[in-house]
Amino acid sequence: MLASCWCWTMQYDTIYACQDRKDDIKIGVHSTAVLFGTHVRPFIQASAIGFVVLLVCAGIANQQSPLYFLFSCAGTAFWFIRQFRDLDLDEPKSCWAAFKGNGKLGWFVWSGLIIDYIWKLQNLQVALL
Fold it and tell me: d(Cα 88, Cα 105) in Å, to the nearest integer?
């Protein structure tokens, strides 16, 4: 789960860095947006894919229910697909909107975990009866 959060952080932080990439180059800041240059979009997409894949791996390792995979994993994947469709890395306003939107993405992960927990808790109560 920790590695998945690293991927998510790299994804949204790089989008944030794309807002002022031109200024970073002028003043010598070595952000990930500058480091990856023309390959910044593939890097962001790879980070997003890594996030989803590692969420799936964490779910398998923790024996999560299908509800976790539906809400947390599939929800996150669909969020990224929509975000990449709308994202223009050369437009600061687009980068800002995508960066802010990543705060909402956490609700997908959280909701899947909570729904999975409630479902398991209800099944446990039924089994105990």
Answer: 19
